[in-house]
């Protein structure tokens, strides 16, 4: 199914959140998309926080397929790199989520985009 088409509730696996919000609940909500599924975050949330408020991982390892959820949470470890649907790389722990942002947690279906990425590993 193309990533921009919504999945029916029955087709979406149940996702348990890694994070639970305890404070700062009064900020304005915004919608964004994880793997084509609409999700809600609050203004000022990082992508890492926004994603982990919805599920237990921010991405699947491109080497092993193992779930990754960030490690240092301060931008030093390289574990939270994600991509948007258009292939742009972003560091989830230091990028603010924006309304309508579309992020993906796995590279499947993005082979052409990934193949076009710079070979030197520099983020775009």
TrEMBL record:
Mind listing the UniProt keywords for this protein, alphabetically? Oxidoreductase
Return the SUPFAM superfamilies for the record. Answer: 2Fe-2S ferredoxin-like
Give a single Pfam family match: Fer2_4
Q: Tell me the superkingdom of the source.
A: Bacteria
- Keyword Oxidoreductase carried by entry: yes
Q: Name one GO molecular function term.
A: iron-sulfur cluster binding
List the InterPro entries hit by this protein, alphabetically.
2Fe-2S-bd_N, 2Fe-2S_ferredoxin-like_sf
Q: What is this protein called?
A: NAD(FAD)-dependent dehydrogenase
**Organism per entry:** Paraburkholderia lacunae
